[in-house]
From TrEMBL:
<dbReference type="InterPro" id="IPR013783">
    <property type="entry name" value="Ig-like_fold"/>
</dbReference>
<dbReference type="InterPro" id="IPR032312">
    <property type="entry name" value="LacZ_4"/>
</dbReference>
<dbReference type="Pfam" id="PF00703">
    <property type="entry name" value="Glyco_hydro_2"/>
</dbReference>
<dbReference type="InterPro" id="IPR006103">
    <property type="entry name" value="Glyco_hydro_2_cat"/>
</dbReference>
<dbReference type="InterPro" id="IPR004199">
    <property type="entry name" value="B-gal_small/dom_5"/>
</dbReference>
<dbReference type="InterPro" id="IPR006102">
    <property type="entry name" value="Ig-like_GH2"/>
</dbReference>
<dbReference type="InterPro" id="IPR050347">
    <property type="entry name" value="Bact_Beta-galactosidase"/>
</dbReference>
<dbReference type="Pfam" id="PF02836">
    <property type="entry name" value="Glyco_hydro_2_C"/>
</dbReference>
<dbReference type="Pfam" id="PF02929">
    <property type="entry name" value="Bgal_small_N"/>
</dbReference>
<dbReference type="Pfam" id="PF02837">
    <property type="entry name" value="Glyco_hydro_2_N"/>
</dbReference>
<dbReference type="InterPro" id="IPR011013">
    <property type="entry name" value="Gal_mutarotase_sf_dom"/>
</dbReference>
<dbReference type="InterPro" id="IPR023230">
    <property type="entry name" value="Glyco_hydro_2_CS"/>
</dbReference>
<dbReference type="InterPro" id="IPR006104">
    <property type="entry name" value="Glyco_hydro_2_N"/>
</dbReference>
<keyword id="KW-0326">Glycosidase</keyword>
<dbReference type="InterPro" id="IPR008979">
    <property type="entry name" value="Galactose-bd-like_sf"/>
</dbReference>
<keyword id="KW-0378">Hydrolase</keyword>
<dbReference type="InterPro" id="IPR017853">
    <property type="entry name" value="GH"/>
</dbReference>
Length: 948
């Protein structure tokens, strides 16, 4: 009867100024009951002495305990770590009669200030009963949810008493089986609040007709709605002043600045029933979450979650976190470029969301619900007995946290199977708040959820799912790259697929930090895991599986994660650099590119280049680094983006991103005049008297004109097939099924960066075979400068039916005239393949077309040259020399048009520049090439240059 319906968490302040300060620890009408309480620890609730029930508290024996805090971390009982097992019989809803129980008691002085008084518990684990001045107030549960009681009729002026019984185990424990230490007690704030009739505040930002509005829904106690003064502040400035005469009002907010995780603009609504106060502030932000083109979008932009799962944990205080701890931890997370947090697996302390709102993190707010240890056929989610409890847990979370802009998704819980109680819970959540999306991983068919969610999915499996055609919901990895001990590996590989596939919108690493409990020893602090307290059932080191140590020292894996998700990407060719912003919203001005060139460990040159204002997702200009001409041995170019001014939490001089690339040198600079022009179907790039044309349909280089001579007969395109050799015959039927050739090409996206003498074109292409569903995502950078056309390509195979191997990966250049003469520096003089090249030492060689490929009696693939550093191919007729160099040794071949054996009579050739070429084997009668000589459909990258 005294228990309040779920509502938002708010405070009354005595002045507008104090309200805008938003520090509830100083709110006049707020009386903290935190601090030392009298305490008695019992083995069971059956042992509670009569004096407790008769309020004869001074006749009882008391020790003390700190509130907030856990009993087990203050000498009462011991922590127990389990992942999914219950350390009690899995016999819901029954709990053992031996059930550690804490009795809490204190007095407090109180003078009435406002109409009604509320007693608020932010977190008590797991079940409690309360008495005020000896009168029973009721009970509470839902360990990480807020419980409030109306105590107006129970308080007296002057001294009051409050007594609380906390049971460690309750039937609700079966819904709170999260992978963490079992720690009980009053572990979050206890507060007495003076309030007016104002009872609830829900603010929903609404974007309509290009205009932001705030929908304000207020709750009041009593039968009539009393008008409420409402002022919206932008910082300290009142921008809207009005009186709300209805429980629901729409307020237009012209020119509202949007909230996003990069630019977390906040507004404060200050409400009061009377002009003299008290004043209730509520922060909010203008942002919208919607599904556009099957992607979750924040303010119209698809999100990419680079997040962590975060448990609340302090190695000395458990889940009883101080505000300082929360702020410093969340700030640390933000400083590492992490942009999202899943509150695994329960709603966090309220202050956490204030910090996320303020510094900009996207939050998946997860309900306090995990039934891992009892997830069988009679899992609680399927049992009507638990239905109401499921629904209420959802409602309590959503009501408490309704106004936080950082929360973009409600998560129904973790690992609790799927069934009708979740359907009811999701419906109840949508009824309160249709403005956010719903997540719940075990809902694998997305019956109630807005997104697919999986855990620890392998990258190839993700690619398969991502490339399924048809309109499907997006995919989020609610947990991936388990960070236990050394590792996790493949962070960049995950990042690559997140960035490649629109349907993959990122994920949350499991998990942010180890939960080792601190123990002081004569030699210093050590951190212990499950079993350290001789728990008969425990899961050992599974709680030591974070990116950071318990003391928040970043592991190498965390440093790596931060590097992988850094907000800038670098593209480099020789001494030309393009920086790309990977931010989604913010434009950054005042950035510097800092660079250092080191050869054999010795610095050769360094410098700073200003980067002009860089909008989200955009490329910078081509920045040219002043390095001396000539080639360098064993050289690395290290680049970083540094802030010239403070940006959010980053101070002036912060390194926001860095990269290092191998550097081979630059030729003496010749003046170049580079121009870019478009026709509807072509992009034309000219440099002095040479020209490169890119087809805007396929994304391939369609023409290369060297000083007035066209060298391409057709598009230069990536291919993966070669003419079969005799040793392929047993696998040819399978290979035909893969339809390796011909391939088709589609340009998906391109961007251009330019300077006076250099242009870079970034191309994203989709390459597909006929018939099949597999494909290659290709990202290619074309650089055009006085030196020539530099091609840098990265590719990822995908699709459910993708072949596991191909005979080669590389570009075919259909030549306008036969290759009359080829000279090269590399393995030679004859053909060489990875499993057959010892007779071909590296050297400088020259061969005519007729001498190029071995004339096998049965026509087949022939002629590959390996280890090629540089080559020159002279075309017949024009005598144009097409010069090729590779940053790394290349494969080079001249074949008949379309890849057939060179023939004297056809005289139409293709030049092949391959990243990878498969070995030969002897499978005509013997085995296939050894594994190490095969070309697998793994991601690849390579680069070469065609000189002007
Ligand atoms: C997954 C849990 O969701 C998470 O809480 C944690 O326990 C993690 O495992 C292991 O550290 S569930 C697992 C069955 C994949």
């Amino acid at each position: 009867m005294n228990k309040l319906q779920p509502r938002v968490r708010f405070f009354n302040y005595s002045s507008v100024k104090a309200a805008l300060g938003y520090d509830d620890t100083t709110a006049t009408y707020t009386h903290s009951l935190n601090g030392d309480w009298q305490f008695q620890y019992l083995a069971s609730p059956l042992d509670i002495p009569d004096e407790f029930f008769t309020a004869a508290y001074d006749k009882m024996q008391w020790s003390t305990i700190q509130v907030p805090g856990h009993m087990e971390l203050q000498g009462y009982g011991e922590p127990n770590y389990t992942n999914l097992d219950f350390p009690i019989p899995a016999d819901p809803p029954e709990v053992p009669s031996k059930n550690p129980t804490g009795l809490y008691y204190r007095t407090f002085d109180y003078q009435q200030q406002l109409d009604r008084q509320i007693l608020r518990f932010d977190g008590v684990d797991s079940f409690f009963k309360v008495w005020v001045n000896g009168q029973s107030l009721g009970d509470g549960h839902g360990s990480r949810l807020m419980t409030e009681f109306d105590v107006t009729d129970l308080l007296v002026e002057g001294e009051n008493t409050i007594a609380i019984e906390v049971d460690k185990w309750s039937k609700y424990s079966f819904l709170e089986d999260q992978d963490q230490w079992w720690l009980s007690g009053i572990f979050r704030d206890v507060t007495l609040l003076d309030e007016t009739a104002l009872n609830d505040i829900q603010i929903t930002p609404v974007f309509k007709d290009d205009q932001w509005q705030a929908r304000i829904v207020l709750g009041e106690t009593g039968d009539h709605f009393a008008p409420v003064h409402a002022t919206i502040f932008d910082g300290e400035t009142a921008i809207i002043n009005t009186t709300l005469t209805d429980p629901e009002t729409m307020i237009d907010v012209p020119d509202a600045k949007e909230w996003n995780d990069e630019e977390p603009n906040l507004y404060t609504l200050v409400l009061s029933l009377s002009e003299d106060g008290p004043f209730v502030p509520m922060r909010f932000g203008f942002r919208r979450i919607e599904m556009l083109d099957d992607q979750i979008c924040l303010n119209g932009v698809p999100i990419l979650i680079n997040g962590v799962n975060r448990h609340e944990f302090d190695p000395r205080r458990g889940r009883a976190l101080t505000r300082e701890y929360i702020r410093s931890e969340v700030t640390q997370i933000k400083s590492l470029h992490i942009n999202a947090i899943r509150t695994s697996h329960y709603p966090d302390a309220p202050y956490f969301y204030d910090v996320c709102d303020e510094i900009g993190l996207m939050v998946f707010d997860e309900c306090d619900l995990e039934t891992h240890g009892v997830n069988g056929i009679d899992a609680p989610c399927k049992d009507p007995y638990w239905k109401e409890e499921f629904v209420e847990r959802g409602q309590r979370m959503v009501h408490r946290d309704f106004d936080h802009p950082s929360i973009i998704v409600w998560s129904l819980g973790n690992e609790s199977n799927f069934g009708p109680n979740f359907v009811a819970m999701a419906n109840a959540i949508r009824a309160i708040d249709p403005s956010r999306m719903i997540h719940y991983e075990p809902d694998q068919e997305t019956v109630v959820t807005d997104m697919y969610s999986t855990m620890y999915t392998a990258i190839d499996e993700l690619e398969k799912r991502a490339t399924r055609y048809g309109h499907i919901k997006p995919h989020i990895l609610c947990e991936y790259d388990h960070a236990m001990g050394a590792g996790p590996g493949s962070l960049q590989d995950y990042q690559d697929v997140f960035r490649l596939y629109p349907g993959l919108q990122g994920g949350f690493i499991w998990e942010w930090k180890d939960h080792g409990i601190a123990q002081d020893t004569p030699t210093g602090t050590k951190y212990v895991w499950g079993g350290a307290f001789n728990e008969p059932v425990n899961d050992g080191i599974f709680c030591i599986d974070g990116l950071a140590r318990p003391d928040r020292v970043p592991s190498p894996g965390l440093v790596e994660f931060s590097r992988v998700i850094q907000p800038f990407a670098f593209f480099v060719a020789q001494n030309h650099v393009v920086v790309r912003s990977l931010y989604h919203y913010r434009t950054l001005t005042d950035l510097t590119l800092r660079w250092t060139l080191v050869s054999a460990g010795v610095e050769v040159a360094s410098g700073n280049e200003p980067i002009a204002a860089l909008a989200a997702g955009r490329l910078s200009h081509v920045l040219t680094l002043a390095v001396p001409a000539g080639s360098l041995e064993d050289a690395q170019l290290t680049l970083s983006v540094v802030t010239n001014e403070a940006v959010g939490i980053f101070e002036k001089g912060s390194v926001l991103a860095f990269d290092q690339v191998a550097y081979h040198g630059v030729p003496a600079q010749t003046p170049a005049d580079v121009k870019v022009s478009f026709s509807p179907s072509k992009l034309v790039l000219t440099c002095n008297d040479s020209e490169v044309r890119v087809d805007l349909g396929t994304g391939n280089v369609a023409q290369l004109n060297l000083h007035g001579t066209s060298v391409l007969r057709d598009e230069m395109a990536l291919n993966v097939d070669r003419m079969p050799i005799c040793n392929d015959w047993k696998i040819m039927d399978d290979r035909k099924q893969d339809h390796l050739a011909p391939l088709s090409y589609r340009l998906e996206h391109f961007a251009i960066a330019k300077s006076e003498d250099t242009v870079m074109v970034l191309l994203q292409q989709r390459v597909k075979p006929l018939v099949r569903q597999w494909g290659i995502e290709l990202e290619t950078m074309l650089w055009i400068s006085a030196s020539g056309l530099s091609v840098q390509t990265r590719g990822w195979f995908d699709g459910e039916d993708q072949p596991t191997e191909v005979p080669r990966i590389g570009y075919d250049l259909p030549l306008t005239a036969p290759a009359e003469k080829i000279s090269w520096y590399g393995n030679g003089p004859t053909e060489a393949y990875p499993d057959s090249y010892l007779s071909c030492p590296i050297g400088s060689y020259e061969r005519s077309r007729a001498e190029w490929g071995f004339d096998y009696v049965v026509p087949q693939e022939a002629g590959n040259r390996m280890g090629v550093r540089r080559a020159s191919v002279t075309l017949a007729q024009t005598q144009t020399a097409l010069q090729v160099t590779g940053a790394e040794p290349l494969n080079l071949n001249v074949v008949g048009a379309g890849g057939v054996t060179l023939q004297a009579e056809t005289q139409t050739d293709d030049l092949r520049i391959d990243a990878k070429v498969a070995g030969l084997g002897s499978n005509a009668c013997g085995p296939l090439p050894l594994e190490r000589y095969r070309v697998y459909t793994a991601p690849f990258d390579y680069a070469f240059m065609l000189h002007f």
